[in-house]
Write a structure and sequence with these properties.
Helix content is about 35%, strand content about 20%. It has about 325 residues and is an alpha/beta fold.
Length: about 325
């Protein structure tokens, strides 16, 4: 199937969101919305499943909802705009968009359709909304990640591995969220007697080249956003092979082997965002709905990885963790 082809998924079992289906007309009375995001699995399916679960909680069951899956290659903004234009022609009444760059492309493609997007950065600083309280432009968002969390992750990393001094960060300079998170980490690192070793990554080849710097550092800090998002498992596997701790921004199937993570899960963020979607489907203007933050952040520590690295996790930190992988 070509990148710009549509995979249309009817509401039903969450697993159904990941399977191809034939394009069909929306059933009479059904609300047709589209999910637009990078074609990275299992993340796309986690987000789609979380959104569907949240919408079920809001009463959208059976034939009440018609969901379209719109996947594009990361960075394919022209393809994203083409898909949005086709979605509008197909009668989509709302777009749920994964990421700030795709949200920008979607808005450029259509000024008429309401958008709810999720972003790992500050949507005001990115120029995507006018303010957190009054986003405007028939657009609102969930900030599943906000830049100050990069500071908190460095603090946790210091507690987990006190001897860490040089920390590798791979970041995509094209992604505004990635730049915002890096800026916070730059300010925080010196206060913890840490030095960031920064490597720009615009492609998978850049990530591989950046990982060559693991020989010059003591740990790796995940900077959310951009091309590294879909390569988390490979990054962690490479760092673990060198016995270096890694700290990530979210606990997922791809990041389960990291030493630790702190943030909101994709599924929980999409589930919370469903409440915004529901309000818009019931007549609210997206631009009048305040941008929301996750209602819960989780600290997850992997004891198996810690033992492999030769680290002893302080009992006080284990007691604060929301989940400990034994």
């Amino acid at each position: 199937m070509r990148r710009r082809d549509f995979t249309i998924i009817l509401s039903g079992a969450v697993a159904g969101l990941g399977a191809a289906a034939t394009a069909v007309r929306a059933q009479d009375g059904a609300k047709r919305i589209a999910i637009l995001g990078p074609d990275e699995e299992p993340r796309f399916s986690d987000l789609a499943g979380g959104l569907q679960a949240g919408l079920r909680e809001q009463g959208y069951t059976g034939a009440a909802l018609d969901l379209l899956q719109l996947k594009v290659a990361r960075g394919d903004l022209s393809g994203a705009r083409a898909q949005v234009e086709e979605a509008v022609r197909r009668g989509v009444v709302l777009l749920f968009v994964i990421g700030s760059e795709l949200a920008r492309a979607a808005r450029q493609a259509s000024s008429a359709i309401p958008i709810v997007f999720i972003t790992p950065g500050d949507p005001v600083a990115a120029g995507l909304v006018a303010s957190l309280a009054r986003p405007g432009g028939d657009t609102t968002a969930m900030t599943f990640e906000f830049p100050e969390l990069s500071a908190k992750r460095l603090e946790f990393l210091k507690e987990l591995a006190p001897r860490v001094r040089n920390v590798l960060v791979l970041y995509d300079p094209r992604d505004v969220s990635s730049r915002q998170n890096l800026a916070v980490a730059r300010v925080t690192a010196p206060t913890l007697e840490m030095t960031l070793v920064e490597r720009e990554t615009r492609s998978e080849a850049d990530v591989s080249q950046g990982l060559a710097s693991l020989g010059d550092v003591d740990a790796l800090l995940s900077i959310p956003g951009g091309v590294t998002t879909g390569l988390s498992a490979e990054i962690i596997r490479t760092a673990n092979a060198r016995h270096l701790p890694t700290f990530f921004h979210s606990h997922t199937a791809r990041t389960a082997d990291a030493l630790a993570s702190y943030g909101a899960s994709d599924a929980s963020v999409a589930r919370q965002a469903a409440k915004l979607v529901d309000k818009i489907l019931k007549g609210a203007k997206a631009g009048d709905l305040p941008v929301e933050r996750p209602s819960k952040l989780e600290l997850v520590i992997n004891q198996k990885t810690a033992k492999m690295l030769g680290l002893t996790i302080p009992p006080s930190l284990l007691a604060r963790a929301d989940d400990v992988i034994e």
